[in-house]
Amino acid sequence: MFFRNLTLFRFSPAVGNDLARLEEALAGHRLRACGPLEMATRGFVPPMAATEDEPLTRSIKHCTLLALGSEDKLLPAQVVNTELQRKVRAVAEQHGRRVGGRERKRIKDEVLTELLPRAFVRSSRLAAYVDRQHGWVVLDTASRKAAEDALSQMRQALGSFPAVPLAPASSPRLLMTDWLSSGKLPAGLQLGDECELRDPASNTGAIVRCRRQDLEADEVKEHLRTGKQVFLLGLVFNERIGFVLGEDLVVHKLRFLDVVTEELGDSQGDAAAELDASFALMSLELAQLLAKLDECFGIPRPTDG
Fold it and tell me: Which of 49, 61, 147, 155 has the highest count of CB atoms within 10 angstroms of its CB?
């Protein structure tokens, strides 16, 4: 169940204390199936994805795992438009007149009412956890929109959840550019084999993407000398975690190296025990990584005042 991407938010100590009621708060906001005329539903699902009556959270020490579930009707615009055009032509031919905008909208509503009950449903889930002690919300997505949607669902369940985006004191882009240019990284961090360089002065400037590349090579340094800056940088932390860090501090392509996964061993327990073991190991490793990011960039935790 290891996460593959990380979008991060922070909250204050008082909010962390309030999250002790998370299981109770989520209970009234479980995912329900899409109704015949609904396009989508959102709600919380058990992290184990086993049965619907499983608990909606699992906690290891001060970290609590949860999952947001989604059901979305798949109704392609082309299908709707084709049926709409057919009905509009039928009305025009039957009455010998042009169909106006208001009537066209009414016909489209009728088409949606007819098609929605027959649409396929796509289910998805987004895992997340809260670290109550250190004030982190960690979501397994690289999409800011998906992360914000999940936070909105948590706010609805809790009544209030003032988690805020990261506000680093030091510019990640400038710091990562310096790391790549100088080859001098903070203790515990090493260069990976991937980066994305852009000209920050122009949205239409050249973009250089390097993969499976020696980032200390002269050809990479030459791009930096011409003024490009680092927008994505591959890094390795403590020889245990590999990832690609964005200039917005979103963590992409997170992977736990063999030295970490081997610590799980060959679990012979049940599914719940395996989930707890994986979550405990992941949250412990990520706590150290997030502490390093805080140290490097200065990511203030909100205060209660």
Answer: 147
When comparing pLDDT for 65 and 271, which is higher? 65
Q: Are 184 and 151 in contact (CB under 8 A)?
A: no
Q: Which of left, alpha, beta for 40 (phi over 0: left; psi -120 to 50: alpha)?
A: beta
Q: How confident is the model at residue 274 (pLDDT cuts 50, 70, 90)?
A: confident
**What order of strands is seen across the sheet that includes strand 189-198?**
207-211, 189-198, 229-237, 241-246, 251-256
What single-letter amino acid sits at 262? E
Q: How far apart are CA 112 and CA 20, in angstroms?
A: 43
Distances from the Cα of 253 to the Cα of 5, 55, 81, 119, 270, angstroms: 6, 29, 38, 33, 28
In Å, the largest CA–CA distance within the chain is: 78
